[in-house]
Amino acid sequence: MSLSSTSRRLEGVQSALEVTVCEALGDPKTHDAQKLHRAYGDLIGNPTLVRQPNVDFRVIADILKSKFPWATDAVELVLGEIALKQVYGDPRLSSVLKPFLLVGQPGSGKTKFATELSQILGFHGHLSGGVADSGGLQAVSRGWSSTLPCGPFLAMHRHKCANPVILIDEIDKAKDGASNVIFGPPYCRC
Length: 190
Known about the structure:
Order of helices and strands: EEHEHHHEHE
Number of strands: 5
Number of helices: 5
Radius of gyration: 18 Å
Strand content: 15-25%
Structural class: alpha+beta
Shape: globular
Low-confidence stretches: 1-15, 186-190
Strand order of the largest sheet: 1-2-3
Distance between the termini: 16 Å
C-alpha cells in the first residue's frame, strides 16, 4: 500500500489522503488476472480514498459514552487513538484505527459497539465470522472457478474506500486447524 500526496474533496467526506491498495496483479496476461482486473480494476493501480469522518471529536465521544457507559475502556481506547492522531499525527488519518480486540461476556455489546462506532465515524462495516475457516480474510486462489480477492479487498471495492471497518465477529469460536487462517502461522496474524 502506498500513500499518494494528492487529496480531494467529496460530498460527505473531508479532504483525505489517497492510497494505492494494489499496484498490479502478477501476470496481467492470464485469463484469471484479466477477469480480476475487469471486476476490481478500480482498486488495481489506482489511488483510493482514505475516508475521514465529518463528525466532531466531541460528538463521537458524547455518543459513545452515552450509548456504551459500561464500555469505558473500549471508548477510551478509541477516543485516545483518534485524539493522539489529531494532535501529534496526521489529522487526516485520525479515523484510521489500529486493530483492537473487544473482550467481554456473550451479549455484552461487543459487536454492537464495533458496528455503532463504524456508523458514527461514517464508515461501512464488513462483517466476517471467526467460525469459518478463514473468516473471509483469505482470498480464493487463482485457478479455481470461484477466484476471489480477500475479504478486506472486497470491502474496499464495495465501499470505494481504503479504510472500511473489518469486524471479525466471534473470533473465540474459530477452530484451530491447518486451513484456518485466523490461527495460521504467526506472520499471518494481525
